[in-house]
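Worked Example 4.2. Consider the chain below.
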Amino acid sequence: MSITVILIIVGMIAIYGGIFYFMHLKKKKQKEMFLNTDFNAEMRKAETYKNNFLNGELAFIPMQMEGKIIDAFNYANIDYSTKDSIKDGMKDSLKGLATLGTVRFHTVQTPKYLILSGADLHLLDTDTEGEISNHLVFDATRLQASTITELPLEGMIKAFAKQKGDNVKAYRIALATDGSPIELIMFSALLFTYANAGASAFSLNVQKNLEEIIIANDFLKKLGDRYSNLKVTGLLG
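Applying the procedure from the previous section yields the following structure tokens:
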């Protein structure tokens, strides 16, 4: 092995080691900040935090809502297990074989958003270009027939939840339709679980992580206040 290769390897180890150490310090700082945070006071800032997001990186949500009130919002993910992932991987491989390997297929999960507006819950789905591909509305009758359950923190669900702190919870909400319910995973923090979200799930901005926790808790609290069958326990504030 040449000295150049050795130097490259050592350099890469040093870079990755530095990144992991930096992230460790950030997580430690976040944990310390949360321990000293008055979450009751922070929950009273939920409206301000919500509007900051809606006037900034999530400005497309008010545009899609076309003037309808936005009481609260949260991110959502399809209920996608490891078994589903393996199944899709096999399907994608078979599709690739069908084209003699000239085309590669990859099943992609895309961001979804839940918006509470009055008595209605809106579900916005996006395509691979980030554009809104579906806009579904669940009225009071649908929501009264829907359910929510807290999920045990294990596997990938636990890994994603931990990115936002030690007290983040995960839930499965089943939204009633004329046929099978639409089942989604959401957290008490703004979190996506699709594959390429892993790198961005942990923000280096500790204040932003706090705001994302407050916004999601505000959504879950308001949803439960309006529909007792969708109430969860252990929320902040």
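Residues 37-230 form one domain. The radius of gyration is 20 Å. Compare this with Example 4.1 before moving on.
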